[in-house]
Amino acid sequence: MSKKRKAKKKKKSTSSQWVVLLLLISGIGYLMNLYGCGGLSLREYNTPQYEGPTLTTHIDDLDMARTAKGCPSQIIRHTGHTLSYNNNLRLANWVGYELTAQETMGNVERTDWFDTDPKVKGTKVRHADYTHSGFDRGHLAPAADMKWSQQAMVESFYMSNICPQVHALNAGLWNTLENRVRTWAQRDSAIIVVCGPIVPQQHSTIGKNRVAVPSHYYKIIAAPYSTTPRGIAFIMPNEDIDNPLYTYAVTIDSVENTTGIDFLYNLPDSLENHIEQNIDLKLWQL
């Protein structure tokens, strides 16, 4: 009898261990989904295929965006990029441009000459506004994406294309993302890039002209001409971060909800919706 009781007890103990193990696994899975550690990996394989009409011709102004209603905005067109300038913040709301594979092969050298933007109406931010501020003069449209034109390079150093950026971010993960964008442009022949700052209502400023300091930065990338049209976006805090790039990936829709800006509105609706609602990390090699 005692042997039978021991055997029965042992079986019950093993069963309990399995229950505890399953609960632990379920709990870990719940936390991963709750905090975003795994939600995107599911989209890597579950993104639906696009079944609508594909683009057969080039569409102008895909890099344009609709600034949030009520937000100060002066649209300024330069050789290599277009921007919406917010004179209240002394920053661009967004900077957009198309980057082609051929443009990434340019050999124009950096000017490193930061200058006021002659097209800005109102207060013109100056190089000195950033001096001793503790922040880098961070490009929105990177100078390295403008190597195809001397004029585009010069205009990329206009202060309307610059934002206060923590050095560790500017030289770190943000730079990593910029390099990836050029790789994607080479692979997909042409991509659309729009990026900008996220400034909270309560924010600090730098310089005599009171340039707002963003809490985060966003960048959206779309490959509408690809045989597998796709889009991806990133939101990064303006601080020293060292997590893998994919951990900051979000849908373009998420950036629209956060900023109130409408991107890619010149695309056919079915294509726009597909690109903005889905992320496929595998297609972006993340």
List the helices and strands and how they pair.
Elements: H1 2-34, H2 39-46, E1 65-66, E2 74-77, E3 82-86, E4 91-100, E5 136-139, H3 150-156, E6 162-165, H4 167-170, H5 173-188, E7 190-198, E8 205-206, E9 211-212, E10 216-223, E11 230-237, E12 249-250, H6 252-259, E13 262-263, H7 269-277
Mind explaining what this structure looks like?
The protein is of the alpha+beta class. It is 30% helix and 22% strand. The protein contains seven helices and 13 strands. The strands form four sheets. Strands 2-3-4-7-10-11-12 form a seven-stranded antiparallel beta sheet, sandwiched between helices. It is globular.
In short:
With 286 residues, the protein is an alpha+beta fold.
Q: Going across the major beta sheet, what is the strand order?
A: 2-3-4-7-10-11-12
Number of domains as seen in the coordinates:
1
Global structural class: alpha+beta
Give the CA-CA distance, first to last residue: 61 Å
**Which spans have pLDDT < 50 for at least 5 consecutive residues?**
1-15, 19-45
Radius of gyration: 24 Å
Shape: globular
How much of the residues is beta strand, in percent?
15-25%
Question: What string, H for helix and E for strand, traces the elements in order?
Answer: HHEEEEEHEHHEEEEEEHEH
Q: CATH first level: which class? A: Alpha Beta
Helix content: 25-40%
CATH homologous group name = Extracellular Endonuclease, subunit A
Describe the largest sheet: 7 strands, antiparallel
Quaternary status of these chains? single chain
CATH A-level architecture: 3-Layer(aba) Sandwich
Enter the CATH topology name: Extracellular Endonuclease, Chain A
Average residue-wise pLDDT: 87
Task: Count up the helices.
Answer: 7
Give the beta-strand count. Answer: 13
